[in-house]
Amino acid sequence: MIKILIVEDEKHMLQGLKDNLEFEGYEIDIAGEGKTGLDKILNNTYNLVLLDVMLPEISGFDICKTVRKEGIATPIILLTAKGEEIDKVLGLELGADDYITKPFSLRELLARIKAILRRTEKPQTIADQDRMVKIGKLSVNFKNFESFDNNKPVKMSHKEFEILHYLYAHANLTVHRDDLMSEVWGINYEITTRTVDNFILKLRQKIESDPNHPKIILTVHGIGYKMLI
What we know:
The strands form three sheets. This protein has a five-stranded parallel sheet with strand order 2-1-3-4-5, sandwiched between helices. Strands 6-7-8-9 form a four-stranded antiparallel sheet, with no helix packed on it. A three-stranded antiparallel sheet has the order 10-12-11. The protein is built from eight helices and twelve strands. It is an alpha/beta fold and 229 residues long. The protein has two domains: 3-121, Rossmann fold, CATH 3.40.50.2300; 133-227, Winged helix-like DNA-binding domain superfamily/Winged helix DNA-binding domain (Arc Repressor Mutant, subunit A, Orthogonal Bundle), CATH 1.10.10. Helix 2 (34-43) packs parallel to helix 3 and helix 6 (158-169) crosses helix 7.
């Protein structure tokens, strides 16, 4: 059964989400404040986390940042009352997989949840191969979301794995930024090309021997990127 953690300090919202998602057949765990939620994410396994941004003591942004630094790739949907683009971009750059602005309909939330679960759990030609592939300095197992540099684990967010996987699947071909945005984030995401570029910079720092002069992930100016294998 798919297990979802809800981290939300508004009691009525928390209970309403729990009841509705359990009705849809999901197994639900809850946390009423940020520290408890962070502890649960770090010490348990979930298929998805619904994470409120405006939490007392520790914000959803800080939780997301900490979780990704720990190498946990569990998909995260941010719940936010803020609609400003800067908050959306910040959340995505910190490693969130999606965001939804309050107030939202249950139908919209379920659609976002199902879309992320499809992307993260559907079989992939490469991901199904339970083996390590060499990409620059990294040895990567896409199926298990593992990466190593000289046998030392390298922490990568779920989104970094998705981008890397897409580029690897289209190795030696030019990949348009728009394709990355639609295939990795989905058509409903309001992100900018700057977000994509920032993720590419992070990947280069982990893959390239000299990130300032990349030889694996090349920029195709005005279009996108090309991974050379």
